Amino acid sequence: MGLKISRLRIKNFRSIESLEIVLGDNNLIFGQNNAGKSNILRAINVALNTTYFVSEQDIFVKNGEALKKDKAAIIDVMISPGEDESGRNSFSAFWTTVFSEKWIFTDDNSNDFVGIRTIIQYDIEFDNYRCSKYVIKQWGESADNADCKKQSFTQDMMKYISCFYMDAHRDITEDIRDKKSYFGRATSNSEIPSEIVEKLEQQLDEINKEIVDNTPTLREAEVQLSEIGNLIGSAASTLQIEPLSRKISDLHKGIDVKFQDGSGPVISLSEHGMGTRSWVSFLTLGAYVKHLLTCIQKQDPDAEMFSVLTMEEPEAHLHSCAQKKLYKQIMNFTGQKIVSTHSSNILAQADIKDFIHIYKKDGSTFAHRIDNTKYQTEELAKIQREFIKSKGDLLFSSAVILAEGITEELALPIYFTKFFKCDPSSLGINILGIGGQNYRSFLKLFVDFDIPFFIFSDGETKTIATVNKALVEATGKELEQSSNVIVLDNGEYYEQYLVSSGYGKYIVEAINEYEHILRMESDPEGAARDPVQFFDRFIATNNHKVAGQKSTGEPCPTCGLQKKEQILYEYDGEDGRKRAIVDCLKKDKAKYAECIAEKIVSISDKTLCIPSKLNELFNEVKESLNVGDGE
Questions:
Q1: How far is 409 from 564, CA to CA, in rounded Å?
Q2: Nearest-10 crossing angle of helices 573-587, 589-601
């Protein structure tokens, strides 16, 4: 690729107090709502366009701050060329002519760049906010210490640099009738020779007259309307009805786009859903850009065009397959792409190296992208396959709670809702059971994208070692130093922990109630004849039966192999009953996860309705994220 915006710096613009982002050829901006994604796209358009309406709404104002007239917004963009044969970033002869020596400067590494500063400030003469352009001679470490000089765009810069903004409300039916839209610009930019235009407009006059003359209602209406013309004008005034536009340049106002599915009826796009209309609107932009490039190269075959697409939510109103198709079309767009999204389907199509996570902390907007140096090529490919393709929605979280397996994934949201008086999604929090896999990859990504995470871990030795190793590699901290990691005591896993914590009675009640419902649905007569509850039947069926074998540690005198002895299920007494509960749950953990959690949170005793280790976890979430507990 030729040119690209390599760096973007924003200060005091709309919701953004201070932000700097490194950009590539393709950029996929994601994050929660109201994090500032749209304002980043707007900032780029303000920077690259010379005509952009601005107002006091474009100035960042803190909560409780009164906007003063001397406060200004600053938007800096650095435009960089590709590498030449020597490995240096230098502008081609064409772009050197376009920018001229007024705009091209060299950084400390001898690489060319064009730095454009846009300042939005109040102009006392016009009693309004206006934009001023400056050339950045030295980029500097921040917006405050950049070396700038007021400078207007060259005519060639305005001609050969184009920035296109498509917001989430794009609609082809509106674009068709808007002369300022990309569709309107393309259709009103007629290159038909003037003599042909004159001939066509004469024919349009004749067609209009024939339509009116042969339509009684229109003919009578024109007669009546002529009386109004006589009243508001001279006696010679006339008023005409135009069924069709008489001017070629206004024909776009009457254009329609029709769609026919096979042998089905021909239907106007205005009758289609917003997804289709939005999609077609983007495709017309692609056509318009190609048209611009064709016109430019007709005048000068050696000319180039630097185009930047800034697009909001390409997934709007489209189903998942259509989203994937549209994203591929976006990637074929000529020029640099900077796209914001809320769709995990879109993320799944993109290269993780193009991701930019936008989020808010304490009212300020921040940006993070992956640190490629921390990953090997195969590791990135694995993350793309196993994480982004299937669990990409986690990247939109305000925080993530990782747990050992599916049981915790199903149960924890119920305890969470009891503690916080709202479900996790209301706070933007995702809970995921990862089955002991990929802790390392998950944690490194969360650290890279600055997404807070918490871990609710089993206490088994192997699991603790896995979690600790992943923590050290991702954060540099040992498990003991990480208050965001809650580990079960005594080497227990979740089910054992619940039983040893005194919840056995409630677990049995939940199992019996659940199994009774299932049996009543499948065999109501049998359930009525057999009053024995499920868990009692489980004990009666399995007690003293063979559970497996274990080595005795003694060799067989005949074959030399280790002797083995049978292991029996022992469910007698209180301890045996506890073992039975754990064994019953082990047969199908996920089956009872939710009903057990629901039973426990319904306990009237507030000290018991959330297990202590989960209370510890949620209190850490509450303190770290500064969220309430619903009380």
A1: 38
A2: 120
